Amino acid sequence: MPSSPHPAPDGLRGDTLVDVGCGPTIYQLLSACEHFQEIIALDYTDQNRRELEKWLRNEAGAFDWRPVVEYVCELEGDREKWAEKEEKLRKKVRRVLKCDVTKANPTDPVSLPPADCIVSTLCLEAACKDLAAFLGALRNIGALVKPGGHLVMLTVLRETYYAFNKQVFSCLRLERNTVEEAVESAGFDVKFSEVEPYLPGDGSADCEAILSLVARRRASVTG
Description:
Distance between the termini: 34 Å
Shape: globular
Oligomer: single chain
Order of helices and strands: EEHHHEEHHEEEHEE
Number of strands: 9
Structural class: alpha/beta
Number of helices: 6
Strand order of the largest sheet: 3-2-1-4-5-9-8
């Protein structure tokens, strides 16, 4: 694993966390729910939001995340706390809203107060067709976080397509330096950046690596 030019920041915490492009999943929020009082989940597709809401309401037929929750709890020190963590996450996700990262206000017509932290996991590279759109989307979601707040981002590098359920989707091919420069130009200072090699091996995608990044929004945004 390459060494990071940016040291990992201290634990992130605060009142409100916004998950941009949450999909139908909860894995990305399992640790976050221990450090934030309120979580707002955003996604573009109605189907993804419905699936998430099904799990949040503990409805019949909802996806069973228990094995994943147990694994996260084990990493945190106590596998047996899985039910407690599920309950905590269900209570903390207060809103599930439609969002479009290409809009200046991604949650239009709803206006959200600035959050302490935004999370974006494997979203923007799939939502943006070119680098200009990627830069614009970063600026748009960046406006959702307060000055001094944080952006936590997970993105794939050098991927042009991914396949799911026999459908092939295009993906914006990104390099590490491109992502870091885009984050900086959106008004953030990169505090942590790390690349891990990743080769799916089954032909479902052609990505070569995963980039994990944490950045802090500057007090004044210029440029």
